Amino acid sequence: MASRTRPTGHTRLRTLTLSGTAAIILALVVSLLPNLAQAAETTLGAAAAQSGRYFGAAVAANKLSDSAYTTILNREFNSVTPENEMKIDATEPQQNNFTFSNADRIVNHATSRGWKVRGHTLAWHSQQPGWMQGMEGTTLRNAMLNHVTRVATYYRGKIYSWDVVNEAFEDGNSGARRNSNLQRTGNDWIEAAFRAADAADPNAKLCYNDYNTDNWTWAKTQAVYNMVRDFKSRGVPIDCVGFQSHFNANSPYNSNYRTTLSSFAALGVDVQITELDIEGSGTTQANTFRSVVSDCLAVARCNGVTVWGVRDCDSWRSSGTPLLFECNGNKKAAYTATLEALNSASRVAV
Ligand code: G3I
Known about the structure:
The protein has helices at residues 2-5, 9-37, 44-49, 67-76, 88-91, 101-111, 130-133, 137-154, 189-200, 219-234, 257-265, 282-297, 333-349, and strands at residues 54-59, 79-82, 116-124, 161-166, 205-210, 240-243, 246-247, 270-278, 302-307. By secondary structure, the chain is α/β, with parallel strands linked by helices. The chain is globular and about 55 Å long.
């Protein structure tokens, strides 16, 4: 009893320590109040930056002269991916004759503003120049490695992450590699491309990028997961996996997406949402954008989100109105949901 009314030296010390701790907590809360009271960020890039992430868009070089387009781009985004300008047909139209002018316009637009650049893409079965399409075997393997080396070397130090290899797996239930001229050069073509990219630009994050790998239960997702696990176990220099995330009725968002992102991250790679678009409109579309962004923010190794275009009419699937801005530049409900998701996650982080 007495010790309750008249503390012993030991209890007094504990009381003092506790009140000291309480004072520190109070001081912390008071110092954080201005931050808590701070208005949420009002642009996608700034909202993503609160948690150290980027928010990017695929950009077409020929649209950089459209001021309605660049007004939105410059205000909202802090990362870009050239939509077509870094592909093999664009950068090496004739063998060993490299052209970077269109890609450079995008890279310079971004780096002069301190934005990140995602390089897309070094080795792919599609958008190969004519000279490469007809190649097979060792000739093709060497031409592919030369391409990876030359392009990654040219951009060394300017690229945050490279899609080193794009879309190398079959759709459907086979879990097999896609049959392409690159695959026919030997099953090790993917790791060979990663090793060449690593030698050329050791500081860029090197990603494998694909679509229909968002649903954790799909065979293609599991096949890519197994490849990444194998690469990590053998020391192949892979740093990240890109999830294109083109969602529509045939490839819908599934709530196991967060499991997909976290499962890959647990292999020891970063994950990035690289080509996000979601066909639809109104609240349904907005809620799906909210879910996708929240899933990225829930995974520490999810570095950021890139949407595949700025306005609906810039999209490769424009009839599906899958982006965040209307053609007239107005923000859609999907924009508001995305911004809210980015802001609410950062408040949780505080
Ligand atoms: O620039 C020419 C133009 O001169 C010509 O008149 C016109 C006639 O067809 O074609 C124009 O090129 C088109 C190019 O986009 C630029 O608009 C190509 O035909 C067309 O095939 C190309 O489509 C691109 C597609 O990749 C090719 O595979 C899309 O813009 C681009 O958004 C899309 O991006 C891919 C990613 O790289 C990988 N993941 C899937 C994603 C969507 O397909």
